[in-house]
Design a protein that fits this description.
The complex is a heterodimer of chains A (144) and B (71). Chain A has 144 residues and is mostly helical. Chain A has helices spanning 5-33, 39-71, 74-78, 81-111, 114-142. In chain A, helix 1 runs antiparallel to helix 2 (39-71) and helix 1 (5-33) packs antiparallel against helix 5. In chain B, 54% of the residues lie in helices and 8% in strands. Chain B is globular, with a radius of gyration of 11 Å. The two termini of chain B are 17 Å apart. The chains are: A mainly alpha (144), B mainly alpha (71). The interface between A and B is medium-sized, with 21 and 22 residues.
Chain lengths: 144, 71
């Protein structure tokens, strides 16, 4: 399948983030839902997970960038107007998800424990980023 | 989401210009090859600047390259 750097980058981020947070919520989700989770249980795992995501994404994006730089196509490396437009539109759509999550977080802060509220906000960030990446991939395939 | 009302004749013009490849055109107008593919398939309408650059590459007027189908 013929993909630009922007499209490949979106796939890398979607798969990396999806796998990482799918693991995290499958591991700690049940305890969170049962109200048995405290910050001490998950703080280290969460920090470690974020660091791992960053490291994996950096490595994969550098590999992608080197591969494209070898082709000598400058626009591929820096992105062009279509890449920029797709990113702006995807960000715009994902902002609604983030906004809804933030509002939910506000209500949670009043009604739930700090751990639950923190995870609602985390889930909002993950959901918004997922919506952004999926939207980008749809635009790349179907047109914009 | 897919499809645009802006039509183009880029593929024919490329072949008429020493069978220029999509990659060559992309490099000359400063976009990715995938963007040239999207423009030819009418899945993306280029900016005015890119449209003018395409016309300049083929040394033809803008209206020879692009047309607008508002039906």
């Amino acid at each position: 399948m013929d993909m630009s750097y922007g499209e490949k980058s979106a796939w890398v981020s979607l798969v990396t983030m999806g796998a990482a947070y799918a693991w995290y919520f499958s591991k700690y989700g049940p305890a969170l839902a049962a109200g048995e989770l405290v910050f001490g249980d998950i703080f280290g795992a969460l920090i470690g997970l974020v660091i791992l995501i960053v490291i994996v994404e950096v490595i994969l994006h550098v590999a992608l960038g080197l591969d494209i730089a070898r082709s000598g196509a400058d626009a591929e490396v820096t992105g062009d107007e279509r890449d920029a437009l797709i990113e702006v539109r995807a960000n715009s759509i994902s902002s609604y998800v983030l906004g809804a999550g933030a509002i939910t977080g506000i209500f949670c802060a009043a009604l739930q424990t700090p751990v639950v509220t923190a995870h609602v906000l985390l889930l909002s960030l993950v959901a918004a980023e997922t919506v952004k990446l999926v939207t980008q991939l749809v635009y790349y395939r179907r047109g914009i | 989401m897919a499809g645009t009302a802006v039509r183009n004749d880029i593929r024919r013009l490329r072949f008429m210009n020493d069978e220029m490849t999509q990659a060559e055109l992309a490099k000359r107008i400063g976009v990715t090859r995938q963007t040239v593919v999207a423009i030819e398939k009418e899945k993306y309408s280029p900016s005015l600047e890119v449209a003018f650059r395409i016309a300049r590459v083929f040394a033809v007027p803008l209206e020879t390259v692009f047309s607008y189908d508002d039906e």
